[in-house]
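U., I forgot to send this yesterday:
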Amino acid sequence: MTELSRRSLLARLGAGAAVTVLAACGSTSAEAKGFAVQYSDAEWKKRLTREQYFILRKKGTEAPGSSPLLKEQRKGTFVCAGCAQPLFSSTTKYDSRTGWPSFWQPLPRAIGTSTDWDVGYARTEVHCSRCGGHQGHVFNDGPKPTGKRYCINGDALLFRPG
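Result:
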């Protein structure tokens, strides 16, 4: 009986590892996807601040509550810090109380999504459709009318008033 339990456990562990590997096989880096704006890794490092590079190119996350854009209330547009593509209108920004700038809708064709398995389960990653820069994630717990919460790293954005 012990051997059967051990076999069952090993089979389950193997199946779990296989699922993780197969899921990772479906994901590719932003550089490999053929975005309109592309630079070498060295060029991205020159163009971006250390924090922007960490988030946009390495899929990092800033500390919650650290972005000055959390308090940005002016009318305007939030653009990608990597390529300046407009991503979100200030009219869709709201306080999600999560510590990151949040929006209930992106601008048309501004963002792309992919499945992110980095934390061990599937999440929907949000990236700039022009340069592939990682912005954050989208969740289904936002306000009406979309019910979406685009939880975005402030260091991945720049604000353009107007």
